[in-house]
C-alpha cells in the first residue's frame, strides 16, 4: 500500500488509473477502473474520500452505498459493487447484468484536504443484440399483406410477376446490419444515381432498399 503525505497534490498525483469509456452488451458485466493513491492529510491524519457519480448524481462512496444503489426487485443481489481492496485504493466500479438504464457518464471523485479531484468522464454505452431476422413476402407485388416465409413456407409468386421480400431484425441497438444472398452468394448492390435506388443483378434484376425504424421499447433479455 502506497501511503504518502502531500501538501498540494494534483489530480495526476491522486487518481492513478482513470475509468475508460466502454460499449458493452446487455446483460454482460462491466468494470470501470479507478485506482487512487492512498494519501494522508499531514495536519489531520485523515485520508482521501472516494465517490462515484453517474450523470452528475452521486451514487456512493462506500461499498455499502454502492451496493444499495444497485439493488432492485429483479435480483436478490446488488448489480453494483466495489469488489476490490479499497484500502489499497482499488475503487473499480463493477456492474453485473448490465441494463439500458446503466447507460450514462461515470466519474470517480476524490475529496482530499478540502479539494475535489475528478477523473476523466467514462461514457458507458449498452448495446442490445437484434432478434433473429425474419423474412416476409409482401404479396400482390408489394401491395398486399405480409406473410412470413421460411424453409417450410416458401414464397410463392406468379411467373413474370414481381416478388417483394422484406427482412426484419428487431430490437437491435444499434440497428442490425442486414445483407442479402441468393443461393448462398452475397448480392452485389449498385446505386443508380438517376433513379436513386439500389440495384442488384443475380440472373435477374431487382431493387434493394434499407430502412431503420425506432423500436418503442427494448425487451429485458
TrEMBL record:
MF GO annotations: cell adhesion molecule binding
PROSITE patterns, A to Z: IG_LIKE
Topological category with respect to the lipid bilayer: Single-pass type I membrane protein
Location of the Ig-like domain: 9-125, 145-184
GO biological process: cell-cell adhesion
Record keywords, A-Z: Disulfide bond, Glycoprotein, Immunoglobulin domain, Membrane
InterPro entries registered for this protein in UniProt: Cell_adhesion_signaling, Ig-like_dom, Ig-like_dom_sf, Ig-like_fold, Ig_sub, Ig_V-set
Signal peptide from the UniProt entry: none
Primary localisation category: membrane
GO cellular component: cell-cell junction; plasma membrane
Superkingdom to which the source organism belongs: Eukaryota
Location(s), subcellular: Membrane
Protein name: Immunoglobulin V-set domain protein
